[in-house]
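#struct-help
A.M.: can someone run this one for me? Single chain, 726 residues.
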Amino acid sequence: MGWFRYASGDDSAGVHGAFVSVLRESDRRAAGGGVLLTERHLLTCAHVVNVALGKELLAPADPGPVRIGAVFPGTGSRAPHEARVAHWVPPRRTGGGLDWSGDLAVLELDAPAPAVPPRWSEMVPGQGVRAWHGGGHAATFVEVMVKECDGWIGYVDGELSGAAIGPGYSGGPLWSEREGAFVGLVAAQLQAPDGPLAAHHVVRRGWAIPWQAVRAELESTGAGPLLAAAGDGAEDAQRVPHQLLLPLAALLSDPAERADKARRLAEQCGLHALDDGSAPTYEELAAVLAEYPRALPSLTEVLVPTAHSSSARDAIDTLHATGPLAAGSRLLSYTEHHYLLALLRQHAKADPALLPRAARGALAYAELPQPVRAARIAPEAVEAAVDALEELGDSGRVPDGTPRVPALLRVAEYVAAALDGAAGDELCGWSDQVATRLGIHPAALAERRRDAEEWASSRHTDSGGTVVRLTRRPGDPSGAYRCTVWRMAPDGTATRASTGADRPLSGPEIAGLVRDTVAPDDEEAPLVEFVVDRDALQLPVDEWREAEPDDTDPYGIFAPAALGADFRVVLRCPELRRRSPTGAADLRRRWAGCRTEETLAVDELMGDVRALKDTLNRTRQRSTGRVVLHGPVARRIQLLQVCLFMGVPVVLWDRTAAGRDDGRHLDEIDSAGPLDSLPERVRDFRVGVYADSERTARPSLVWEDPDRPLPGGLWLADPVAMTEEK
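D.P.: on it. Structure tokens below:
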């Protein structure tokens, strides 16, 4: 880059942060290495993915969108991240079987990576490069020299000292300190034949996939847009957005001032700058803005205090408008980002529910990104949440000709409004500074601040509840379900809160997913509605709880509670009602009858299915909305389906009841009592029976409130049709 120099040493260049350990499915140990390509994509060898999945090393078949575990060991965290195979270039034998071509896989992360994508450059003979074992430990580094490179395969040799490339290094990146960039991936090791080592045998020779081969192979698979987002040093000149040059020239025409501001920018980006009295060219400065996502806002942060003229302000506004389009710039500068993270981590430690609660209030009608959907965000997850919010806009009104208020600033205002005194003022001060840099009109920010204050003063709770959809597909294990969680706003609008991994989940896993996404309510236990098909109405969803703690909790102090103890858990099954041509009208009529008509107790003495249909359809029970079911299990299941087909909205039964005499076990619930508090009375009852091993009753409650519409697409089909769902 000429005037700017990459800092020496791979730590400052972000090498370790971008390194990825690809995990084996069987034991979660490293199958090989990988590297961050963009903030949401990983690059590794296809054969590393095969190893991770337990397949043959050079199996050519695309594994499809399977889930792969990955860890970023250089960030100091061993927390696994989930990724799916997005692009696949199968291994192809060449060179008489000694080596192969292709062999690339791009994995897409569920959330932005906790690291910055690195810079790439072409591999050429004579480069000294460094590799690491897939586990990512710094002590496993290997120093090798690129001896030959034809653009498709690079052969690397190591000296007879230190470590050598071996099993587990495949897929890992090769770092060139001279280039300040990665230049390829480790592919394999060439080994001497079995037997005594002779002088003519190959010693410490490996081969690699050069960056130029990676680039060509991925372009052929349609992954070209990813390469545009990757830091390709070989194409820096082509990537410099010319739209940045004019505003830079208008703002930094004085070479001394340009050198001063550029030197401060270099320090923020971890770069070195020349100190010979010269200044960078506008092209060199623009190249840094294009390569480092937070460089542009960091530069305008130091330009705004001295931008006193309208022309200077216009030039800064042009940079802000051009940057995200041409350079992929982030919203916040390095300083603003670090300061906000420090504040929010402090508040997340005291109240993990504050940030997601504020985000739901500020962006009530937006589809929140995955890192912000959880009901609680721990301090270590704040950065991913902030980075995701940076990408969202705000559709609120602003004065003509002024920038819109970013969603992140709106959320910050809602967090500030929920805090008391100095803590809220500190966050508002941060918001004011960012708004000033961006040129946001004070009236627009003031309007968002008033909205936030009204939200905070209303003691807003997420009274809309949570909907959990359970489905199955052919071949899924018995007792396991695929799960999607929706968060419902009080006005009936729905936002997807969480999607379980695209695999069947056990009851404890679903319980963990629900607890991670159900929003707290300050006034009452949250309502959780499980939407199931008719074959799943007997599931003990209220008894599901997360996995038991280990032996470090011998007294069960930290043992997780059942969902039915902490939440008002109810069932919904619209499938059966949909089969009735009058189902919607029946539901409305009977829901009104829930408050005026008597509760109907149904048992085996009433007769068969036809007798119950006649009772509900042709007698004074035509408006009955509440039914309590008794009797043996087989008959009870039949009668339950009749009730739901006939539009009965509230049905209560004991899953463990063996006959009519067991009906007395539910008397404590008072099924005929006030309607609105029935789910809470069921929850209270569950708390008591969970704690008493001698009480066997386990109530299930269908609660079909017609004023609580389900999210679009949750009208479940027939069980057979459901198995064909994609």
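A.M.: thanks! Confidence is low (pLDDT under 50) at residues 8-13, 197-202, 715-726.
D.P.: also worth noting: The radius of gyration is 31 Å.
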